[in-house]
């Protein structure tokens, strides 16, 4: 087997066939024709002004509540630098994005995981912790098609979280890169929107999933004063983010490329999820999962006693890979895994699941 | 006067007429045709691999000694994070780039300015400090067409600095964004080159001055182990820098756009310097300066007693601006200023100097 035969359910990245390469060529031409000075000069740390304006309108906020960054992870890093000091209690979902855990732990946060249910974080477990004296700096929440679980926070729980944030005076960090990657069900309002300007929510998102990761365009929306502090830090870090890429993304948005791209991505991912669920039901019937309504990821629980840390190398020997559930948890989850279907074409999925099933059988033979 | 009438000698940024907009359109088309996956996917923190390889070849080092970043200021920030702890003694030139001073002071460095002469940092003042017990973490040096002074470090002093670095065990941080913007005289070897792999030099540069600032592509070259540490930090900050912009810059380099662009920039800047020197000689004969052989900046000393902090608002009232010399110094320099000619077309220069001269006369009238 060569590397190109590997079927990867590991990386939360889109396959090239769902990126609108021709549209990005056209958007670049338009950006460099219509605003060469803006696209190619130094900007300021707020990002490309027309893109910031468009995002402010999208979210119904003032422009000075928005800052466009080099990808949303850079935005997260700036925010963590502002909010976290060593020992800061921070609530996260259990499981959650591994890079979030890493970023928080690097800064010495006291990370407090709260269970994630099918309808999002267990707000009553959180309420009990708060009642017991926990005073978090913020709660980090991935509300839509959570990474790694694929679950979505219900409307009732969005409201409950905001109530708790108000009552116990903490910030909700709404980390929402997948919002527009919904291919089933109805969209829910963001907590940013539900908060109605009370300043309890800092919202982050990006164009990595709707345009392309390589453009590295993300943004935050938040209270004016916090955004101003992040802006000062961004200025001192890099003067300005990538104006060229942001001008291209802006043109892609206004020329209708974004909507076309989202429609294409969502149609492809819906097909992949259907194929993945059917393949799992057929070839790996012991796997438990819930079909996601959007996003890139599906969380799969294997029967208790299956050691996914041993399954992974057996799977890689057979030409398929994924990420172990334990990477997204501080403890537990030994029988879980995250399957990303964003980078795998539909025609590779059944084969990939077949290899997984074979790897699982090999463990049993070895144990038997 | 409207804002568009303002003649700005303030900002170290190129005017749009010396940026190859058409060439960048063509380079984008080529990048997205030849390597759409590389340009649009997530990369890794090393940057766009073909660009890294090209830079490694340019500098005669191994690829794992190079890291391509979102502009060289981001590279500086990563390096400072690695090298500086509160109280670290750091040698800088006097005057030096204001953002360097800011970045060092933010991290609590013990900043030790050493005089800058026409042929670069005063190595004997530095030697005396070292002899007196100073043990700097590193010396920050802008060797070519220094910002703000425009001076260039001589070959003899480059060698002397490396001797001192070896003898007193410190790193030379060679911050070299202007190297290729030489329009007179002969290029000198970098200290990176003169060090011959002994690992005493960390080198940083960028494409902001040779391609365009808005692409935000910079890089560092250094000892493998240090580059690996910066890479880890970059991964945790943003996963990967802007692959799209880096792929475009790469194509621009290999298609000959870079060489054409450098030739165009240098021809334009040479004309501006000649015009600026002639205008100063004629209209502001009391100004003392040395015509730079490259770069963006010229340092101007006005007669002792001229308070540039008062001159600046008088100049701005008359539609011309610049940066006060004191911004580049921890102390002193009240009669000095930095004139940047990178953003001013040649046909605006005489008018700009005329306004400066008028502003200076107005102070004398007020004082008289």
What does it look like?
The structure is a homodimer of 368-residue chains. By secondary structure, chain A is of the alpha/beta class. Chain A folds into 2 domains: 126 residues, Aspartate Aminotransferase, domain 1 (Alpha-Beta Complex), CATH 3.90.1150.10; 235 residues, 3-Layer(aba) Sandwich (Aspartate Aminotransferase, domain 2). Helices cover 45% and strands 15% of the residues of chain A. Chain A contains 13 helices and 13 strands. In chain A, the strands form 3 sheets. Chain A has an 8-stranded mixed β-sheet, with helices on both faces. A 3-stranded antiparallel β-sheet of chain A has the order 10-13-12, covered by helices on one side. In chain A, strands 1-11 form a two-stranded parallel ribbon. In chain A, strand 3, helix 5 and strand 4 form a beta-alpha-beta unit. The longest helix of chain A has 27 residues. Chain A starts with 6 loop residues before the first strand and ends with a helix. In chain A, 52% of the residues are buried. The model of chain A has no long low-confidence stretch (mean pLDDT 96). At the A-B interface, helix 1, helix 2, helix 4, helix 5 and helix 9 of A face helix 1, helix 2, helix 4, helix 5 and helix 9 of B.
């Amino acid at each position: 087997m060569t590397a190109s035969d590997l079927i990867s359910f590991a990386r939360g990245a889109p396959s090239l066939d769902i990126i609108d390469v021709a549209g990005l060529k056209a958007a670049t031409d338009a950006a460099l024709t219509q605003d060469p000075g803006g696209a190619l000069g130094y900007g300021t740390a707020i990002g490309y002004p027309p893109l910031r304006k468009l995002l402010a309108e999208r979210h119904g906020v003032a422009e000075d509540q928005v800052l466009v960054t080099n990808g949303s992870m850079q935005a997260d890093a700036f925010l963590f630098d502002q909010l976290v000091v060593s020992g800061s209690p921070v609530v996260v979902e259990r499981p959650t994005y591994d890079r979030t855990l890493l970023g928080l732990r690097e800064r010495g946060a006291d990370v407090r995981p709260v269970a994630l249910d099918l309808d999002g974080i267990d707000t009553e477990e959180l309420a009990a912790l708060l009642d017991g004296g926990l005073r978090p700096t913020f709660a980090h929440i991935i509300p839509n098609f959570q990474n790694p679980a694929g679950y979505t926070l219900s409307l009732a729980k969005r409201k409950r979280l905001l109530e708790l944030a108000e009552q116990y005076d903490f910030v909700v960090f709404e980390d929402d890169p997948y919002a527009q990657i919904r291919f089933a069900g109805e969209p829910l309002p963001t907590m940013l929107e539900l908060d109605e300007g009370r300043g309890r929510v800092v919202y982050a998102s990006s164009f990595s999933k709707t345009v392309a990761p390589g453009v590295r365009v993300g943004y935050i929306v938040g209270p004016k004063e916090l955004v101003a502090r992040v802006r000062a830090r961004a200025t001192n870090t890099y003067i300005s983010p990538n104006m060229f890429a942001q001008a291209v993304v802006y043109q892609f948005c206004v020329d209708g490329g974004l909507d076309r791209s989202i429609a294409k991505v969502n149609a492809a991912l819906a097909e992949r999820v259907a194929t993945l669920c059917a393949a799992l039901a057929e070839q790996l019937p012991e796997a438990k999962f819930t079909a996601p309504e959007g996003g890139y990821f599906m969380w799969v629980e294997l029967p208790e006693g299956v050691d996914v840390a041993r399954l992974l190398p057996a799977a890689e020997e057979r030409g398929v890979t994924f990420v172990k559930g334990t990477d997204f948890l501080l403890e537990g989850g030994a029988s879980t895994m995250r399957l990303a279907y964003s980078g795998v074409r539909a025609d590779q999925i059944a084969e990939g699941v077949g290899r997984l099933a074979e790897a699982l059988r090999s463990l049993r033979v070895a144990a038997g």
